[in-house]
Amino acid sequence: MTVTxxxxxxxxxxxNLISYRDGQKxxxxxxxxxGKSLSAFANEEDLERIxxxxxxxxxxFVFTNDLKPIEEIYYKNDAKETCNFAILHxxxxxISCQNAILQLSEVSLFKFLNA
Length: 115
Prior knowledge:
Blueprint: E1 2-3, E2 9-13, E3 16-21, E4 24-30, E5 35-42, E6 48-54, E7 59-64, E8 69-74, E9 83-89, E10 92-97, E11 100-105, E12 110-114
Antiparallel strand pairs: 1-2, 2-3, 3-4, 5-6, 6-7, 7-8, 9-10, 10-11, 11-12
């Protein structure tokens, strides 16, 4: 669960991403894979983004704060790392995995940082 700046509550339940506004269900979307992490962050233009990490450990979903899809980022995870959490900081997505932190740029270039 996460809360946006405007007070919406967003819940991730399996493949369902649901937002509540003023105590009422506002929007619901279905992810193509089960999600396991949910976070809200502002990008460089101060636009709020909702980030969901897929349980498959190789995909990141990015939405606006009212759950409109922005992008799906598929990344290589050759080491089969279990990844648990993703954040957006400046122009990079950081994904916390078992033995490393994966850094993805906006153009989906990536590298593992030593943990």
